Amino acid sequence: MRACIERKREGGDLSPEEWTRIVAGLMDGRVDEAQFAALCMACVWRGMSFDEAFAMTRAMVESGDQLSFDRQEGVVVDKHSSGGVSDIVSLAAVPLAAACGARVAKLSGRALGHTGGTIDKLETIPGLRTALSTEEFAEQVRNTGCAIAAQSATIVPADKRIYALRDRTGTVPALGLISSSIVSKKIAGGAHAFVFDVKTGPAAFMQEPEKAKELGRWLLEIAARFGRRATAFVTDMSEPLGRCIGTGVEVVEAREMLQGNGDPRAVQLVTAIAAALVNECGFDEPEALVMRALSSGSGFEKFREMIAAQGGDVSAFENMQLGESIAVRARSGGYVSSIDVVRLGHAGRRLSTHDPLGGLRVDVRIGDYVETGTPLLHAYGRDRDHAAQFADAFTLSESKPAPVPLIYDVQINSVLYPQSGRAAAL
């Protein structure tokens, strides 16, 4: 192990066999965490090749159980976000795609840092279970068309341990380590195709768009080497995607979107991601199918069906409402030129800690002109009285800032497989 650390420190590559032995050794105790942390730091400084990232991904996949779906029954897709604030895409795009006939097997995670976790959000619905067994997960995808579940302890256990170690040792930002972590979970989840949403901007891991595009290419390349089709979006995270930040408040926003009352910015990305999922399943005119599912309400009905299948109280879900709020107002006039998304993300998590429907609702977008006293956001929950400080999260200027695109780039890998299920469900 020492020789491998020294070679990587000097800029050399490790062989696939070495990566396999290293990951296995970490799991059985032959490689201690100090050694693995040193190797990760060398990867941060010296980088990793595609071959190394692929080898590490494969070794992590092989560390635990792997799900499998019969492709003859139709393509199964999964979706992953690199982490955002007010990121309600999974909550809305998964049932929308399923309403179009796609089969979506979505393994999701919990909140990390300032970013929200889809599992935390879903668990605010009374009775809903996210800890599904592999059999329950696969059966629900077959019967309902979609499932959103937590990654079990037996799916890629090496990634869980390695990520915690990287988080403690400041070795998260490395393309090879990030991409192997993401793709290993997707491969073990059993889907045949993936849609990646790579965030860029001040609140993203990859703050520069070109770096985010590079991460997208890594994800596509590694997925291709496993024989999986994939699409990678590079999307903006310079301001919250939706309006609400928290847990239950984001479920309410997703519900309202699926009922036709969505924020235009969030709707744009949700429908684009949903269409990509539908396209990967081989349906013609995916954009039209998704818009029809949204306008007809079939996407909302599929969300209700998924909630019921996972034990959730549908009536309680439909009756979830935001409570009393406090408005945080602008102290001066001007154009909103920037928003401290990281700060608002942390605030939303704190407000929802003891109150599922606690959180924030952002009332302005970058580029909006506000007068003194205009509401910038509303705070909900037990601790909402302390929200006045969040006015400082909005920077106002005399000139209107240049617009920033929501979707910077869309990339697709070239893996081919027989398409199935082309008859639209709507």
Task: Describe the protein's architecture and organization.
This protein has 426 residues and is an alpha/beta fold. A six-stranded mixed sheet has the order 3-2-1-4-5-13, with helices on both faces. It is globular and about 65 Å long.
Give short descriptive properties of this protein.
disordered C terminus, 16 helices, 13 strands, 426 residues, alpha/beta, 4-stranded antiparallel β-sheet, single chain, globular, 6-stranded mixed β-sheet
Spans of at least 5 consecutive residues with low confidence:
418-426
Mean pLDDT: 91
| Major beta-sheet overview | 6 strands, mixed
As a percent range, the share of helical residues equals 40-55%
SS-based structural class?
A: alpha/beta
Overall radius of gyration: 22 Å
Q: Treating each run of at least 4 consecutive H or I residues as one helix, how many helices?
A: 16
Q: End-to-end span in angstroms? A: 56 Å
Q: What is the helix/strand order? A: HHHHEHEHHEHHEHEEHHHHHEEHEEEEE
The amount of beta strand, in percent, is 15-25%
In spatial order, strands of the major sheet run 3-2-1-4-5-13
Shape: globular
> Total strand count, please?
13
Provide a compact summary of the structure.
By secondary structure, the chain is of the alpha/beta class. The protein has 16 helices and 13 strands.
Topology at a glance:
Blueprint: H1 2-9, H2 16-28, H3 33-46, H4 50-61, E1 76-81, H5 89-99, E2 103-108, H6 118-122, H7 134-144, E3 146-150, H8 157-169, H9 175-188, E4 193-200, H10 209-225, E5 229-236, E6 244-246, H11 248-258, H12 264-280, H13 286-296, H14 298-309, H15 314-318, E7 325-329, E8 334-339, H16 341-351, E9 359-362, E10 369-370, E11 375-380, E12 394-397, E13 407-412
Parallel strand pairs: 1-2, 1-4, 2-3, 4-5
Antiparallel strand pairs: 5-13, 6-9, 7-11, 8-10, 8-12, 9-11
